[in-house]
Amino acid sequence: MSVDPNIQWIFSGIGVLALTLIINKLMRHFRENDFSLTANSKDFINTGDYNTNVVGNMVNIINEAIPENIEKSQASAAVDRLIEKFYQVYREHGINLEQIPGFIGKEFDFTFADLEEEKMRLKLSNEIIDWTCNKFGLNRRWFDNQSDRMYQDIQGYKRSWQMIDFISDLVDEVGLYKHESDIHLSAIRDFELMEANQSPEEGKVLFILEVKVGAVSSGPVSKYIFIRDDFIWSYRKSRHEAKRLITIAKAFRINTWGYNEYTG
Asked: Cα dist. 50→90, 152, 241 in Å?
């Protein structure tokens, strides 16, 4: 099996690339939250439970009867935070404010006028937020201010068959004849490369799937899917699982890139 030169270290321990700006940003987000080993987790995709009425209530509460135990100023602040998160998502995925109406699904009839503050308070809905979460692989509970984790993540350790099914679904979603250019897998290490049995115990490899979900005038737009469990490089079985994940990606003809986050 041929291996891309920039992912060769997964198999032989040599060759790395500099980390890109977007990967740096995603890595900081990943590290700031608790992503510990969860090999026994029953859930392959971790989205968390959430109340779909939370956002709708916050959006409509300004124009409806407000419960006695909720101050109008508090409700207004909550809606402001929700709108700011909505704009933040699009900014961090390379979509400028004026590009949002052209990117959002046509079924929502989102116009430039809706970007005005007061109109946005009336326009933003559960349906638009759900569409945005699905488009970018976001954790809806983050929108509802119930979680600090912005992105969904999937379990990857000792779950080869589930990974095959998941990537197969991604290929179907993107398109059989487009996926080779629209799906990429990044492997990122945070330790100095050395013989496996000499690697630091805390040395980990993180995998991120990047999937093109659309485009704006300034370029393509992608979503990012974390494959959690942080494969421990000093653990033999963990290294085998990392190699197995690369092999699965190769079987689907998905480009795989290697990155080095180690700074010494």
From this structure: 22, 13, 32
Token pair for residue 176? Answer: 């059989």
Q: For the chain, which residues make up each domain, given as ranges?
A: 5-47+152-260, 53-143
* pTM metric for this prediction: 0.68
Taken as a whole, the chain contains a residue count of 264
Helix (H), strand (E) at residue 132: helix 126-136
How many Å apart are CA 91 and CA 205, to the nearest integer?
A: 28
Nearest CA to 225 out of 158, 161, 156, 174 is that of: 156
Bridge partners of residue 209, in order along the sequence: 185, 225
For the stretch 29-76, pLDDT in tens is 555 554 443 333 334 455 444 444 444 444 454 445 445 555 667 778
CATH for 5-47+152-260 (1.10.490, 3.30.379, 2.30.30, 3.40.1530): 3.40.1530
By the 8 A CB rule, do 207 and 229 touch?
Answer: no
